[in-house]
Amino acid sequence: MATRWGLCGAGKISNDFSVALKTLPPGDHQIAVVASRSLERAQEFAKRHGIPKAYGSYEELASDPDIDIVYVGVLHTQHWKVGLLFLKAGKNVLCEKPFAMNSRQVQDLVAAAKRNDVFLMEAIWSRCFPVHAEVRRLLAEEAVGEVKLVKAYFGSPQLHIPRSVAKELGGGALLDIGVYCLQFVLMVFRGERPLSIQASGVLLDSGVDESVVVALKFSRNRIAFCAFSISARLPNDAVICGTKGSIKVLGPMHCPTTLVVNDKETEYPLPEPSLPMNFTNSTGLRYEAEEVRQCLLKGLKESPLMPLAESVLLTEVMDEIRKQVGVVFSQDSQ
Ligand SMILES: NC(=O)C1=CN([C@@H]2O[C@H](COP(=O)(O)OP(=O)(O)OC[C@H]3O[C@@H](n4cnc5c(N)ncnc54)[C@H](OP(=O)(O)O)[C@@H]3O)[C@@H](O)[C@H]2O)C=CC1
Ligand SMILES: O=C(O)[C@H](O)[C@H](O)[C@H](O)CO
């Protein structure tokens, strides 16, 4: 029986998610419906992607009994509101990153999932990539000795994109792309809460972060350094430095296909898309979709690859960084 998906939002990432699912066996994944605030946009999207049903409201999607899980692909300013709508309707939810605008909103989502006994996962798709699985395997066998330092960069010039720069649209580097650097560090250090966080950043006139650097300290004298920017192009790689060698995830580290372990390079190629995509390596969204399917088949309520407790910690770390660099959203006082 195929996993039946309902898409919330008919935008860019939903387009890529739909195309990525087409690289998986149709007996395993089907997109049953797409919902948009605009029925016309939903119908156009459904026609382009061969989706049988289109709704002009998220509420209709929340009431549809014939879907197994909702993919939330709307702006992160909407994740909390629409996530609660679906969770309270008893729907399983895969919600795009960042989970929500702050840790209080994330905790509300987690509480609603537990209260309604449904599956919930933050779509940190990176963790489902074969490269990240290999990184976890190498770390488990201490292939580079004791890890002492982690570095993760992500710079993507996107000041021309409204949702990247407007505060009311959840703009800023941290929530959009810094989240990938920080999640990588937490993955390497197995979800440990950092002992200290030191952040420094520069803000746009809109009050969102343009570029940020962060130093994090962990137990046993381990440290991490992250830099992320929506104006500068950075190498976008991540490096794990141990006492016996190094592991390098080549850019784009958030959707990687190349791993270098002690100077030995291995490729993990992606399938080609059947339709145009909006973002880099988006057929890699297939990996998180399959992770979700496997979780649902096992009756799990969260993914071991991105546990809800780690999503809460990740957002708490981002809250602290925002506090230090001076980015405040309206959602922080609601
Ligand atoms: N995993 C990944 O690789 C990526 C993840 N993302 C994440 O996906 C989410 C969506 O990003 P993206 O697809 O680029 O966004 P889009 O600009 O394409 O918007 C997505 C949807 O959000 C809704 N929306 C857009 N603007 C507004 C607004 N002003 N007010 C209310 N709703 C609005 C619309 O839904 P509707 O159709 O219902 O009107 C739209 O279709 C973000 O949270 C982003 O972080 C983005 C890129 C890559
Ligand atoms: O998740 C992402 O990839 C981000 O939302 C950015 O919008 C962008 O795609 C990075 O280049």
UniProtKB/TrEMBL annotation:
<dbReference type="GO" id="GO:0047115">
    <property type="term" value="F:trans-1,2-dihydrobenzene-1,2-diol dehydrogenase activity"/>
</dbReference>
<dbReference type="InterPro" id="IPR050984">
    <property type="entry name" value="Gfo/Idh/MocA_domain"/>
</dbReference>
<dbReference type="InterPro" id="IPR036291">
    <property type="entry name" value="NAD(P)-bd_dom_sf"/>
</dbReference>
<dbReference type="InterPro" id="IPR000683">
    <property type="entry name" value="Gfo/Idh/MocA-like_OxRdtase_N"/>
</dbReference>
<dbReference type="GO" id="GO:0047837">
    <property type="term" value="F:D-xylose 1-dehydrogenase (NADP+) activity"/>
</dbReference>
<keyword id="KW-0560">Oxidoreductase</keyword>
<protein>
    <recommendedName>
        <fullName>Trans-1,2-dihydrobenzene-1,2-diol dehydrogenase</fullName>
        <ecNumber>1.1.1.179</ecNumber>
        <ecNumber>1.3.1.20</ecNumber>
    </recommendedName>
</protein>
<feature type="domain" description="GFO/IDH/MocA-like oxidoreductase">
    <location>
        <begin position="133"/>
        <end position="247"/>
    </location>
</feature>
<comment type="similarity">
    <text>Belongs to the Gfo/Idh/MocA family.</text>
</comment>
<dbReference type="InterPro" id="IPR055170">
    <property type="entry name" value="GFO_IDH_MocA-like_dom"/>
</dbReference>
<dbReference type="GO" id="GO:0000166">
    <property type="term" value="F:nucleotide binding"/>
</dbReference>
<dbReference type="Pfam" id="PF01408">
    <property type="entry name" value="GFO_IDH_MocA"/>
</dbReference>
<feature type="domain" description="Gfo/Idh/MocA-like oxidoreductase N-terminal">
    <location>
        <begin position="4"/>
        <end position="121"/>
    </location>
</feature>
<dbReference type="Pfam" id="PF22725">
    <property type="entry name" value="GFO_IDH_MocA_C3"/>
</dbReference>
